[in-house]
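Predict the 3D structure for this chain.
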Amino acid sequence: SKMQSARPYNLCQQTVCIKSISFRTKSIVGYTELLLQPLTPQLRKVKLNCKQCTVYSIWLETLPDSRGHQQTAMEASFAFNDPTMEICRAEMKQRNLAFFEQRHELAVGSVDPDSNNGEILVPLPQDLWPAVSQGRQLRITVEFSLQQPQAGLYFCSPLGEDGEVDMRSAHCFTSATGNSTRLWLPCIDSCSELCQWRLEITVPEDMVAVAPGDLLETVYTQDLQSKTYRYFLAQPTCAPNIGFAIGAFELETGPPLSGATASYFCPPPLASLMKHTVSRLPDCLAFYESLLGVRLPYGSLKLVFVDQAYETVQSYASVILASVSLLHSARIVDQAIESRRALALALAQQFFGCYIGMQTFSDAWLPQGISGHIAALYQRKVFGHNEYRNYISDQMSQVCHYESTRHEVLLDPSGAAGPDKQSAVTPFCLRFPQTVPPDYAAIYRSKAMLVIRLLGCKLGEEVLQYVLNKLITLASSYDPSLQQQPLQPGTEQSWRPAFLLSSQALLDLILALTGKNMQYLLDQWVTQPGHARLRASFSINKKRNLIALEIRDDPPVAASGGGGGGGGRRRRYTGAVAVSLQELDGPFTHTLKLDESAAVSDLPCHTKSRKIKRRKVLLSNGDELEDPDLGKLESDCSLLWLRVDPEMQLIRHVEIVQPEPMWHLLLRYERCVASQMAACRALCQPCFHSRETWQALMEVVRDERQYYRVRMQACYALCMISGPLDLLEPLMAVFLSLFGAKDTRSVTPANDFSNLQRYFLLKEVPLCMSLLHTAQGVCPPEVPEFILNLLRFNDNSKNIYADDYYRAALIESLFRTVSPAATVTTENFLAKLPKPIAALLEEVTRHMNLEKLMPSYRMVVTVKCLRVFRKLQRTGYIPADIGIFKSYAAPGNYIDVRLAAMEAVVNHIKCAKDAAALAWLLDSTVCNPAEEASVRHQAVAMLTIQPPFLRRKRGQLDTPELVERLWRLLNTELSADCRLRCSVASLYHLLYGRHRPKCTPLPENFLVLNVREGRTKIAQRAPTPTPAPADTDDDNANFGLTGAGVGLGSSGDEADVDDDLDIGLEDDYEFAPDEPPIDEADFVWPPDSSFPAADAAAPAAPAVAAAAAAATPALDEEMLDDGDRDAAEDDEDEIFGYSWDNLPDC
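Done. Predicted structure below.
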């Protein structure tokens, strides 16, 4: 293949030996052996990937062969250079992101193993040239150590009472993001280089080492103080799928999984939770094996739960690393659903992602999409068809929203090889995982899953399953002995393509098995970015009994500044569109051909007349509707409602223009939950606010046969329209009846969550009630009074399930009822609080006290209480002091609590423009290498969601010092953590754009010209990139012992242009100011600490209000005018559509 030919050798086997590990110094020492098979007699040098490690020596030896050649060994010289350690040299004065992104791409490409590059260059001594030309295998031994790693390998080393590392809970683990194996192991860090692996890990005698492959033996060292775990992985695997975990884990052996042994590991205090969490994993594996028609490709499966996890789940070959936040007991309902989804995806990745990999990173959509698709099918089996369709609809909405407001997602960027073509899609490079931001990667996975689902819709589910079965069967027929057989120069191993997926290989297999050419599907959704935005409208010709239907693909309205994904640049969808017309005689589906402009068609009405009485109406799912109430639908209209793409066989956003009575009928009688949810959202439009709409929504809320998510969405819609219609009192009566209460002061019955659908509805109703507002914009006093009573008299004594999430939802509801204060006071504020606010503060403080005695699961109650405190600060009821949030954000608190406190600090920074608070956040978290990786990443994500300022709204926080601080993070300090580096790049772009920050001075020697328009323009000359170093025979041509930025061109200072002065210069990558609201559920920070952990560093809860008053300095009038008070009165955080009080979409 192309990638194999670029590398003049194949890796046959790699041995990894970790001889010692120290949790005190956070270091490992070991060596690795790589067995290479030359593919060309002219092989003169070998390049390896290696970052962070200290390499002591490299030995080369040629192996003996059958012709009598003896083994030859010698120590080799080597050169090391990592250009990603410093993207832009220190003498460069540029600070524009465009130049950084360009150099970052060149730096990553210059060490890309698929282009036969690497950080380590090993020239072959001349004494070995004859053996290499004869095709003899070459063994490379690298001795290395790793000390204080910044990424790739993470140590969780809690301190005991004596100040030393507590070895009873210490553990370490690797990360699996952006080809990160090179961060802890010298290797060929390519997804296309497969080989067998041997791993030997020596650990203290009371610890366990978990690694890929089958455990061959465990032997003690001579001093009996340590033991060595030896693993062998026979299945060919690439280096990115190799990782391990070491720690004092509790082992739980599960029942055999279709012949494979199952082992589960976790920190000792959490063993009881782990047993329940993994109880459904055998059922999940059995479903996958039945679906794919094959068994688990590995002889063992190890699942390890770790603290401070880099991601929620990470999949390696036969090993899954998961966060302890997924562990839960049988009494927890909400987390059980999320844990099953996460573990199901990780298990699916064992088949596609670990066993069947990708040829290049451009083919990453295949394993990611297939694993996501079969995991979604498992959700359909477990949670039902309604939940599955709602899940697909949600994923599609997220993809369309991201592409409309941020960047269009290109699944296969191999066609956009040039920088000009690629920059038309995204401003960052898509060819390497190290340059892709994490938010883009998440949407990429969702879109890949949707495309594989579309492929299944076109082929048929059974045919797609047959294709997937064939992919794994071809790989399973591989004979491991073939890998060790020496090859003649110029030949390659024939078994490799079976383990590597590519777009063309999939198309060829489908064509061979089914005779269908699916190239058009990939051309539509894979090699081109974007989605369809369909707008359907119709008119009825009563005389001819026809429906004149028009469907257009309208581009989204270009946001101010451009989001990088919308506007006129987006291509239009052309192809078939299915339309379902629900008539009295039943549903009728028509297929329209959409061209570049629109699809206009006259569709016949099959129902001749409504005068003929019909007792039954056939629905799309086969149900028959008895004597439906057609309401105010026109008497001579036989069309009940219209649906576009009812089976979701396109990646699209649909807008349908139809009369209000049709939306009512669709909501009442249609059984597709995605269509019902769309009807609820459509009826929220002001043009549909009527008593008939209110009645239709109320009917759905009361109907227990309706899907619970539809009822929840109908509750939100009712709250949106009840205020303008002056129907708050009857709505309150209905909500109270759901709780079994007659009025707001009634004592509700004890909790009974045995009916889970009713539980989720009851948890959501208070959140809906909190959105009710009078004409003055104030929440009716009955609402907080009722919610407070629900909290006060909450009785969970006889309930089999915990009520932690229920109480958290009630506190969240109180949070949303708070309206801005009429006046802001900083002295003696407790005595001046209104009675409702005083009662709210007292109840929230009481629950904070209870958390100290009886912590809730994942401290969810404390998280919501902190949000209430911040809301009271922002609305002017209590002084805006962040001291309490700093104490809760300190290490030692549970991770969810820390992130909630940081979120409050970020919101304070945005509102009060507090430079000291921003400096504290950067010092303690973002710029602190000792902080948890996930916490640093989430802190940057929070700043991106709620930025302290925007480049078009400069403020007192926009300083050259902040520019330099973020630039140092980008340029050098985050060279190891590519995920965090890309996140900081997104934040940097948000604050300063892609050109020079306005707060920094212009470079010297710039020519400024006066133009006729009366403005000043600086001549811009784009930097000329220097291509990656050529692969020459000069061993040290492109490598040096020190220095970074090899082959990356000049400083490019001449390209620095003030975008404020450049006429017509607009950014192609900006957040839209009128972006729709973002659901807060999309930004729930994943916990990474062991559960349960009471807050040790936080102050006592009863003293929260008093401490805030005592520690708060007096606020001047300017801060109040520009800070919390105005932020509360304005449309909160409208820049990003993010609001603390936004309306979530169920």
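Residues 365-476+498-525 form a domain with the Neutral Protease; domain 2 fold (CATH 1.10.390).
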